[in-house]
Amino acid sequence: MMNIGLRVFIYLLFLMSFLPLPAGGMESSAPAVNGQQVSDHFDGKLYFNPAIAQPPPPGQEQHRSRTRWMLSWIFGIDRPEWPETKDVTPGPAPAARVPNGKLSITPVGHATFLIQMDGLNILTDPIWSERCSPVSWVGPRRHREAGIRFEELPPIDAVLVSHNHYDHFDLPTLRRLAETGTRRAIVPIGNLDLIRETGMPQTEALDWWQSVRLSPDVTVTLVPAQHFSSRTLWDRNETLWGGFVVSGPSGNIFFGGDTGYGPHFREIARRFAPIRVALLPISPFRPQQSNAPPQWNHPSVHMGPAEAVQAHTDLDAMVSIAAHFRVFQLGFDGFDDAVTELATTLKNRTLAPETFITPTPGQAIEIDPRITEVRRPEGLKTVCMNR
Buried b vs exposed e over 99-110: b needs ≥16 C-beta within 10 Å? Predict the structure, then answer.
């Protein structure tokens, strides 16, 4: 059995790099990042969320609080037990391509989606690893297998990585993609050195609102998110985070990555209307019945189902698809909490369930760009969105 001290150290390393700190943040003396210009989200040393007030340095009591909730996480205190569902059968092999004007989105699990549109195959935040961690032998592990077998992926034209947390920027998976022929990856600014470690031949780093072309007809733009970055104890917010909008003949597809609720959704809608599909995280969050401390999930940088539904409304998305649930246990919500609360929120707000889909990993969702219809995996029933 692993030495308990080593286990605690590894989990502390993971938690300090992945989870937002309680109010007070972390001070840093990081140098200016690659000469990046000071902006509304970069202060000359670190990136920050413009819509969130920067808190003062933590006091002694806040340090004690931080230690208590980290130890609670490590030892599973008040954390609901998730069921073992790792033997779920992956879905069928996706089509090699879809023709121009067609759009198919296959959820793989967590924040990984295969977007097939206008002759291109695009992967978001790919992770096929057993754990999201600095090491392969300890750290949060999968509770559900990837919805597509890695060996059955079609040729991937581009990978979009939203930020550098281990559950989104998985180096082992990215290296496998590079080895099997994926040539291009796009990341937020500051992550160029890390993505080049994967062996991808073509790597590009973008600031918010910057765009690159994936083909003559398809453009990808990095858009704001309300989150943070770090992979170690010492690099907090030295690299940028974001979401992506992919625009082509089949419409605008928004991928949120990992984000809290904020005014950026309305600005994205203003610039990219109409948004045909939004891929929105719905976990981790703090259920009302949870014993977790209120600061644990930091709603400013994560969204629960209620915030995700509001984001869906702000974006005026024709349809949204839930992400970031039932794969890695990263908060104090139970296995079914996010799905249950999403359904309840939609009902309370008199929104049709088909406007915000809880997907089945591995089952493609086909979206007809001509008449705003969603072809759902359950019996392949076609549902008119009445927009």
Answer: eebbbbbbbbbb
Does 274 sit behind a cis peptide bond, omega within 30 degrees of 0 on the bond before it?
yes
Q: What single string gives the DSSP state of each residue in 119-141?
A: TEEEEES---SSB-SSSSSSS-B
For 161-192, letters b (16+ CB in 10 Å) and e give: bbbbbbbbbbbebbebbbeeebbbbbbbbbbe
pLDDT, tens digit, for every residue of 23-40? 444 444 334 455 578 899
* Contacts of residue 216, Cβ cutoff 8 Å, sequence gap at least 6: none
What value does the mean pLDDT of the chain take?
83
Question: For 289-344, what is each residue's pLDDT tens digit?
Answer: 555 555 555 568 899 999 999 999 999 999 999 999 999 888 888 888 999 999 99
- Return the SS3 of 204: strand
d(CA 59, CA 66): 11
- The superfamily (CATH) of domain 103-384 is Ribonuclease Z/Hydroxyacylglutathione hydrolase-like (3.60.15.10)
Distance of CA 239 to the CA centre of its chain: 16
Q: What angle do CA 218, 223, 229 make, to 5 degrees?
A: 125
DSSP 8-state assignment for residue 354: G
DSSP state of 150: G
pLDDT, tens digit, for every residue of 303-314? 999 999 999 999
Residue 27 token pair: 């001070």
Whether the CA torsion 197, 200, 201, 205 is positive or negative: it is negative
Domain residue spans of the chain: 103-384
Q: What are 147-151's contacts with CB under 8 Å, separation 24+?
A: 147/90, 147/91, 147/106, 147/107, 147/108, 147/109, 147/360, 147/361, 147/362, 147/363, 148/90, 148/91, 148/93, 148/94, 148/106, 148/108, 148/114, 148/361, 148/362, 149/90, 149/93, 150/176
